[in-house]
Amino acid sequence: MEFKLQGDFEMKATTFFGLEEVLEKELMALGAKNIEAFKRGVAFTGDLGFLYKSNLCLRTALKILVPIANFKADNEHTFYDEVKKLEWENLMNYKDTLMVESVANSDFFTHSLYLSQKTKDAIVDRFKEKNNGARPDVDLINPTLKIYVHVFKDEVNISIDSSGEPLYKRGYRSDINVAPMKEVLAAGLVKLSGWSPHQILIDGMCGSATIAIEAALIANNIPPGYFRNNSSTSVNSGFGFMHWHNFDKKLYDIVYEACISKIKNGEPQIIANELSEITLEKAQKNVMNAKVDDVITLSHQSFFDFMPPKKPGVVILNPPYGERMSNQEITNLYKQIGNKLKKDFAGYTAWIITSSEDGFKSIGLRPSRKIHVFNGALECRFLKFELYDGSKKAKKNLPDQ
Question: What three-state secondary structure class fits 305?
């Protein structure tokens, strides 16, 4: 198993269900080659510099994996033997540390933790045999090498994770709510909405302001990895590839400088509105950490009292989904949202993400588009509403996506 990563090589960017097309477009814009989408991810090729660039710049990717092995195994002994055959000494030495993450969809392997343990055992045993008992240790926080094992039926794919901590951990969010939206999903929603920086964007129920912040980063072309690169915290200490033996710091610095040189100083009009004073204080800290306090206006009031600027724009709403609310409360809330949109947001395009079927049915507006996405484990719909003046009718439904 060679590990020189010279020239172009295969990579896989993972994402949330529903964001594959957005991620595919991001990779095309960055200059990736041989792009091919798959469920919850996109495969592509590029060189070492592009590996660094993709980690720094992709807004809708969760991690960037580099495949290193593929084999078939229908029992733990074959699995162990195949993993042990791999020349792990080309990737690390016995003084290094490792971590294994596994996902299995197989009748032969039903426990992901067990797969991780067998992978670790095979790697450790190989090193012990070659180094008189010396072996790498496990580090679940900041390992030299993070290994990702995926098993489907009897097909095993092993990759190394170049990102380290998931890429949604940007490094700017210090205060979050009980159920925060991941930054990757927030960026995906902004891109799916079709919002352009010359338009107003209103994050009407902003929580910790993640949607508004991601929109500001997009508008000013600030790489999402910018904050992580400069973070001194242990959780966000750079990227996984920075621990690899082949890490080319000079090349990384060139890529990093090229990315940040494209940052703009635009002033898009972005408004983040939140009723809870405590939550709004958290949002304010996050906005300042992301260095976009000059382009995001924070508003402290109920969405139902909020009056938008009288010009066309986009409003994105992430209302409660109903986990801690009764059906009647949900019905009333979403009916109010629909009435507010009809009354005060004429000329806007509204997008609502929700997992509540009862809520969706209570809005009283016909969506022109429905996009299937997941917010964590919650299956959601991202609904688009064209808000016309009272004399105009809503467009007919478009097919679900």
Answer: coil
Summarize pLDDT for 247-289 with one digit per residue, the tens: 999 999 999 999 999 999 888 999 999 999 999 999 999 999 9
Amino acid identity of 241?
F
CATH code of 73's domain: 3.30.2130.30
**Torsion angle, alpha carbons of 16, 176, 164, 148, to 10:** -40
| Cα distance between residue 324 and residue 386, in whole Å | 29
Q: Are 74 and 115 in contact (CB under 8 A)?
A: no
pLDDT of residue 400 exceeding 60, the answer is no
Asked if residue 22 is part of any domain, the answer here is yes
Residue 106 and residue 151 in contact, taking contact as beta carbons nearer than 8 Å: yes
> Using CB atoms within 10 A of its CB, is residue 120 exposed (0-12), middle (13-18) or buried (19+)?
middle
Listing from the earlier edge strand, what are the strands of the sheet with 369-375? Answer: 296-300, 270-274, 200-203, 313-317, 349-354, 378-386, 369-375
Q: How far, rounded to the nearest angstrom, does the alpha carbon of residue 226 sit from its chain's CA centroid?
A: 15
For residue 30, the 8-state DSSP code is H
Number of domains the chain contains:
1
Structural contact between residues 373 and 364, judged by C-beta atoms closer than 8 angstroms: no
| Measured distance CA(350)–CA(171) in Å, rounded | 29
User: Is residue 49, in this structure, part of any structural domain at all?
Assistant: yes
Whole domain around residue 108: which residue ranges? 9-161
H-assigned helices in 101-151: 112-130
Please check whether residue 285 lies inside any domain of the structure. Answer: no
Q: At residue 234, does pLDDT exceed 80?
A: no
Q: How many Å apart are CA 168 and CA 185, to the nearest integer?
A: 8
